[in-house]
């Protein structure tokens, strides 16, 4: 079919709007599009695809030769093709890769066979979603626009954000007659994500998407985020800006109780204290508390200025501690309770027993649930520590450890230990008594010798008498 004939058909279609059926096809810019064309004749002599005002797109002659329009080549690669294996089924659909904005419009598929001509008209509409500005800053105005070419007058448009419908409070401008649909809003963190424009027209539906990235403070992601820490431990309060977004005048403040705007006059940490200066990125303005105490409980605010606009993020520091008490009626036991300064988000408490071997290797034992735990101080099984692990809807929030102080005597070894100590004490006493007797006897002999040494003759007589006495005693024994 010549270009002149196609133009006549196209003008007739626009004037009457009822003589030809036009198939509607929607495609997202950059994606492939398939323009349908089916015929009952599977042995055509000529197949011609044309586009209004652009002439031939693709054609195949009876000889088998193929031709492409000059504007359908991109970097030496043909963007259009008509899969030959489908011809035997009478399917002559046209595939357009990487559709562009100006590809939208009316197409004609002409199938000639034996002097018989079948024609199909297809309207290709290209949908694009754009965001302005392309990298919006938190708190600034942002516009999300849905454009369709050619625009389907009378079409309905709806918006979706991250797979769900956009709330009614978000301003949406679309009357089905305008050439686009626009969402205008002051940028907030909840607006980040995948924006999808859904266009419905004559029973067909098309959609296109764009990702909206909010630039500003990305950690914590929202205000009033809770940070959990145990008494005596260190904690980092996060304040991280989007990569490459370096704030001026970064600062930290502690808010007064009951106030979201007035900073505390007595600040427990410097206005800005990097948590790890040596390895920190310039857009990471987190701060650290080396040793958390109960006085640190409360709300904190980090801030920084980006392009003349001050950005802030509030967070709450929740402190965990363990309270212990000794039951009056159960000696050798201790009751421990896991306490948090704010436990509204806690849904579950678990106590995990942690023990250590001679090499210091850590192992985990039994797990008990509940906020309170009763521990036996004379049981060998409780040696080590108990970790209170508290969780919320999004998983584990934090933990705190209680180290068990065992009693001096263990229940299974108390009597045995006592008997061993008693035997050792008795044996040591007998040994000391024997040594004292030996020393006393030696001292007595020494004193006797001192008395007789000045009289040698007397000493001889004494020895002689002693010898004779011993001789008589031996003889009496023999008899």
Give the biggest beta sheet.
9 strands, mixed
**Count of DSSP strands:** 32
Radius of gyration: 47 Å
- What is the arithmetic mean of pLDDT? 81
The helix tally amounts to 3
Low-confidence stretches: 1-19, 408-419
CATH architecture term of the largest domain: Sandwich
Integer tally of domains: 5
Description:
This protein is an alpha+beta fold and 479 residues long. It folds into 5 domains: 123 residues, Sandwich (Immunoglobulin-like); 80 residues, Immunoglobulins (Immunoglobulin-like), CATH 2.60.40; 100 residues, Immunoglobulin-like (Sandwich), CATH 2.60.40.10; 74 residues, Sandwich (Immunoglobulin-like); 55 residues. The chain has 3 helices and 32 strands. Strands 1, 3, 4, 5, 10, 11, 12, 15 and 16 form a 9-stranded mixed β-sheet that branches. A hairpin with a 7-residue loop joins β26 and β27. It starts with a helix and ends with a helix.
Give structural attributes:
6-stranded mixed sheet; Immunoglobulin-like; 16% helix; disordered N terminus; 9-stranded mixed sheet; 42% strand; 479 residues
Quick summary:
The protein is of the alpha+beta class. The chain has helices at 3-16, 414-452, 456-478; strands at 22-28, 33-35, 46-51, 55-60, 66-68, 73-74, 77-78, 80-81, 94-96, 105-113, 116-132, 141-149, 156-161, 164-165, 171-173, 180-186, 193-201, 204-212, 217-219, 225-230, 235-237, 240-241, 248-255, 287-289, 298-306, 309-325, 333-340, 348-356, 362-369, 372-376, 385-392, 395-403.
